[in-house]
Amino acid sequence: MTRPVPTPDRLLELGMGFQASKALLSAIELGVFTELAKGPADGPALRERLGLHPRAAADFFDTLVALGLLRRAEGVYRNADDADAFLDRDKPAYAHLGGLLEMANSRLYGIYHHLTDTLRTGLPHDESSASELDTYDALYADPARLKQFLASMTGVSHTANRAIARQVSWRDHRTVADMGTAQGDLAVQVLLANPHLTGIGFDLPAAGPVFEEYARAHGLNERLTFAGGDFFTDDFPRADIFTFGHILHNWDLEKKKLLLKKAWQALPTGGAVVVYDSLIDDDRSENAFALLMSLTMRAVTDGGFGYTARECRDWMTEAGFGRTWSEHLAGPDSIVVGIKE
């Protein structure tokens, strides 16, 4: 059988993919989709509304058309349906994607510029690079950057959070503590779907105001409270279930195991730990999103890395959990559950 002759098309698409990515991210930063949601416009009018220089504006707008992000008819631009639904800052759905893409533009894009250095040296290139603080202390020290980061965590996690609220059996439990809660969307979605539960969001104290604002916006300020602290050095709150959503991948192996051990120690018999992440497949060859996320953790944290469901279950067993299992959750995310018996 004759093997097909290879072409460079796929390699070219991968290698030049940053151009399309940055065009999208700059369009979000400039507010293109928000502006067009107010009303269609021709090129000169749109350029004027956005405050752009005429030299590159036409190519920019038409690039967005070619990428399927805008539609153009008789010289008038309007948003494509998905861009209008998710990239207009004035629509509620923007919070579930826009914050993440804003963070990708302002933070991750620059960090990935230094990926070759990280691969050669093993050192991250994030906010902590220019200070003596660790990754998250440096990030949390800047209120504006922190708010954007916490909102971006809601964006990357929202679909999985809603799935967890339905998929996990919460019926026999009364309290849930979401560890490393960020803006609090996991706890919010779980409590909205399970009215019998009360919850605690645990994170560094600087996250408190953002968390409390989000809980109030969803009418949960009486059932959902914030606890500020450091989960490596402070006691865990009392709860029937501890959740770790997109948390364990931030830390080195020793700290991953420590968090699971502390959860086991704080849980009552019959309590559970619920972990989810973009888990790497056991063969480490299929879930490209999870592998890229692991690479991102290597680039932005001091010791973080992705992991497989099998590895997480082994760590849970080592921590003392008697029964563990894993299952797919949503998109690239999977869940691992451990029961204290």
UniProtKB/TrEMBL annotation:
Family matches, as InterPro entries: COMT-like (IPR016461), COMT_C (IPR001077), COMT_dimerisation (IPR012967), SAM-dependent_MTases_sf (IPR029063), WH-like_DNA-bd_sf (IPR036388), WH_DNA-bd_sf (IPR036390)
Origin: domain of life: Bacteria
Signal sequence segment: none
UniProt GO molecular function: O-methyltransferase activity; protein dimerization activity
Keywords attached to this entry: Methyltransferase, S-adenosyl-L-methionine, Transferase
A Pfam family assignment: Dimerisation
GO biological process, one term: methylation
Residue stretches making up the O-methyltransferase dimerisation domain: 14-88
PROSITE patterns from the UniProt entry: SAM_OMT_II (PS51683)
EC numbers, comma separated: 2.1.1.-
Ranges where the O-methyltransferase C-terminal domain occurs: 112-321
The UniProt record lists the keyword Transferase: yes
Catalytic residues of the enzyme: 249
UniProt protein name: Methyltransferase
Lineage: Bacteria, Bacillati, Actinomycetota, Actinomycetes, Kitasatosporales
